[in-house]
Amino acid sequence: MTPAHHRRPHLLVLATIFCTLAILVPTRPAAAQFGFDTLEPADGDKVVSMDLLTADDLIMPGATTHLGVRLRMQPGWHVYWHNPGDSGTQPRIRIKAPESITVGEIAWPRPVIFEGHGETTYGYADEVVLLVPITASKELSPGRITLPVEVEWLVCKRACLMGDATGTVTLTVPRPDDNSLRTRGNRLAEAAGRLPIPMATVPDMAATIVEGDTPDTRRLVLTGSAGDATRIRFIPDLTPGVAAGDGRPVDATLEDGRFRIEVPLRVEPDNALGKPLEAAGLVLFGPAATDRAVSFRIPVKD
Question: What is the mean pLDDT of residues 210-234?
């Protein structure tokens, strides 16, 4: 599972990224002022290292395991969450799998909030492990399966750089009568522990839509036990057609051990991209990447 860095001209060609880079990547004289005079816009792999992890070296027919993509950033640099906020873009992972393997969506750990210079973004500093579920078909034959993996990211400090890396993961499908191969436990347990907890599993916590006099005065109301948290904040997920809190964090009020967050909603059905209208996001029980987070997603009436 050794990644090999490489450069591709088509890296992150989305227009949104080029717009971001046009604003955030400084000119050569400006870059020298910030200590970036030796970095080019496509040098993101010089400040971020990538390696691949697996929950176990085995995969059983009909079972699901996880691949972990670990990104390690140099001090001061960060990559982005599923919803990057005011600027940036999320990392992208491509796994080339045979028809007998189904690759799921990335499970995103809770992010931290970056605020400054008039903008708010959400992402990860120091290190993050992005988990991707991999499910084997019940008809998967014994043997070894090698999965090529491509990862692309945008990493920012006072400037933004593009980076990419590739690697491979090899999993063994044991024979039914082979007892010599045993699972080694979940080596991704720590990363899984940083995933947000679904609100449905949290007692005494609720998310409701409160109708106002007009559609523009609707609010999302989040309530529950504050526990030992001294600051609780809401951050929005990506929900086409529904803007929650104008994309910015919303602080909770704390009283008698409970919290309440009121988030203004702006509903624009014409911008829903054919998807159902929803309000979604995270409730963060503290500022650190290791602090608890609860996720939710609820429908919004047109």
Answer: 90
